[in-house]
Task: structure prediction
Amino acid sequence: MKKIIKKMKKNNSGFSLLEILLAVILLAIVVTPLIQTVYSSMSLNKKARIMMGANDVGQSIVEHYEAMTYDGNITSNDFWWPEQSNGYYYDGHITISPLFDGSNYQLYEVKVDVYYKPNNDPLKRTLMATYKGSMYSKLED
Result:
């Protein structure tokens, strides 16, 4: 019996409760900053995707108006439109104002403000980007 007890004491190679507790504490100390870094990275990535979508929407609207010849049919300075880009919802405000009144043509400034709407909620909007472009109107001779 004494031989068996001595053999059991020699083969006792498991971890004690204190060693396991210290390992868990060290693991928590190391993993916590890593989790915070991953969360921060995910948050910045989402903001970048939202901004990229706003840029896409703003540029496409400005390019659309720059390709047009102003014929006077656009009478209001306030246009609102719903857009979706990268899975996010946007709307915008377009302002058209005269820049130059020449003898052969008139030049207009097109200003586009793009707003982000979280979850397509019209009450919550955040201005994300502003773009400016120009369009012209040829006067009849």
About this structure: The two ends are 120 Å apart (CA to CA).
